[in-house]
Amino acid sequence: MNRTSIHDAHVALGAKMVDFAGWRMPVQYGPILDEVRSVRTAVGLFDLSHMGRVFATGPDATAFLDRIATNHCAKIPAGAIRYGLFCREDGNPIDDLLVYRDGENAFFLVVNASNTAADLAWMREHAAGFEVEIVDETATLAMLALQGSGSQAVLQAVTEGCDLASIKYYRFAHGTVCGIPDVRISRTGYTGEDGFEVYVPDAEGPRVWNALMEVGGEHGLSPIGLGARDTLRLEAGMALYGHEIDGEHNPIEAGLSFGVSFAEEKGDWIGRAALARVKESPTKRLMGITTKGPRVPRQGYELFDGATRVGYVVSGSVSPTLETNIASVYVDIGLDDAGRELELDIRGKRQGARLQELPFYSRTRK
User: Fold this and answer.
1) Residue 200: pLDDT band by 50, 70, 90 thresholds?
2) Which CATH superfamily is domain 53-136 in?
3) Under CATH, which number does the domain 283-366 receive?
4) Buried (b) or exposed (e) across 160-177, using 16+ Cβ within 10 A?
5) Is the confidence at residue 364, as pLDDT, over 80?
6) What is the 3-state secondary structure (H, E, C) of the chain?
7) Which residues contact 119 (CB under 8 A, 6 or more apart)?
8) Residue 363: pLDDT band by 50, 70, 90 thresholds?
9) What are the residue ranges spanned by the domains of the chain?
10) pTM
11) Model confidence band, residue 333 (pLDDT cutoffs 50, 70, 90)
């Protein structure tokens, strides 16, 4: 079982540790709903060092990524980040990822922990004929994230040589963090809040974590585990591999078309033909439901309109932000109008639910 370099700090904070995607990770430090509220109202600190980090460089790096990824990598400006997916020929994803463009033929990829090995195998399998170097840096870089309204103030207190206010959403820059030079600093996030990610040498992970914890005290910073992260991303309507997307759920019907390019100049790419067909004739789409019944919706629960099955749950949680139960669901096309009243089947018992568009939560942007 892998451990991040920050593992001992989590244990010292009293975190409940669980096995996740081959890593020993903190699922919570205290009540999960309180951790969600902390991010929504102040700032939370996350250890994301379990996620995969990969460099793709070389003369053919751009052409290579445009062949295997759904987004148009050649159009990404240097210093920008774009969402994309690796899909099979049938259009269903192997994984989703963030693509950072460092330069003309230099990219940094962040992939899911559960799929890192599969992603690397996929990339190397399809690298034949391309002059590209694929380097796995997961073990050498620690990845920490700050999310919430106080994130900029906390990170700026330990950052020199980079004005964080100048980094726009889905952009990145480099600066000195806790005395460590040339640290990659990005502004994305997976919670719906403003936030940053920093990538530091793995051995420096604990020192940076502890520094952020100390500086963050006056800003109400809390350490946040995987449990709260899942609720936060669901409230924000963000997909999770293994739930909203997987080997049977394509990105078009999942509402991820913004990460799929059919531009002629991108050329052909793996899964393009299948996803073009889905785009023309989708059969279902991802939506949200709220339900005030006593039972929380869980993955696999079915949705009914009277006696007719019309969909099913892929993620569900209690939402402390909305003060109700929420879930992301796939609903048949034609029965996917917001406001429609449906019923959840929960172990043979029915519970009312109302359809709505995603996301459930969107922060007020300044």
Assistant:
1) very high
2) Aminomethyltransferase beta-barrel domains (3.30.70.1400)
3) 2.40.30.110
4) eebebeebeebbbbebeb
5) no
6) CEECCCHHHHHHCCCEEEEECCEEEEEECCCHHHHHHHHHHCEEEEECCCCEEEEEECCCHHHHHHHHECCCHHHCCCCEEEEEEEECCCCCEEEEEEEEEEECCEEEEEECHHHHHHHHHHHHHCCCCCCCEEEECCCCEEEEEEECCCHHHHHHCCEECCCHHHCCCCEEEEEEECCEEEEEEECCCCCCCCEEEEEEEHHHHHHHHHHHHHHHHHHCEEECCHHHHHHHHHHCCCCCECCCEECCECCCCCCCHHHCCCCHHHCCCCCHHHHHHHHHCCCEEEEEEEECCCCCCCCCCEEEECCEEEEEEEEEEEECCCCEEEEEEEEECCCCCCCCEEEEEECCEEEEEEEECCCCCCCCCC
7) 52, 54, 86, 94, 95, 97, 109, 111, 112
8) confident
9) 2-51+139-235, 53-136, 283-366
10) 0.96
11) very high
Confidence of residue 365 (pLDDT cuts 50, 70, 90): low
In the chain, the percentage of residues whose pLDDT exceeds 70 is 99
Model pLDDT for residues 316-326, shown as the tens digit of each residue: 999 999 999 99
Name the architecture of domain 2-51+139-235. 2-Layer Sandwich (3.30)
